[in-house]
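Page 42, continued from yesterday. The earlier attempt failed because a stray header line got pasted into the input along with the sequence. Redoing it now with the clean sequence only.
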Amino acid sequence: MSGSDIKSHNNEPEGIVRQTRNWFVENEDQRVDNATKIWEFFNEFMADFYQKREEEGYKDKDLEMMPIPEFIHFIEDWLR
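This time it went through. Structure tokens are written below.
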């Protein structure tokens, strides 16, 4: 999106999720979960992600510099 915010979110992560979800609904005419459910699901994933990576010996720098394909792999595993 090149740093151009379509909707105001006050730089709040939950607001970003809400506005992004709403943008998809408005522009793609898709039926998606409500923003609260998406936000809660995201937080559940992230808590589990960090716990499991810590158990596997990952450090903060490992997670901060993790390649996107590797992160996507963890998401796919979690969704299964």
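Notes: Residues 13-79 form one domain.
Reminder to self: strip header lines before submitting.
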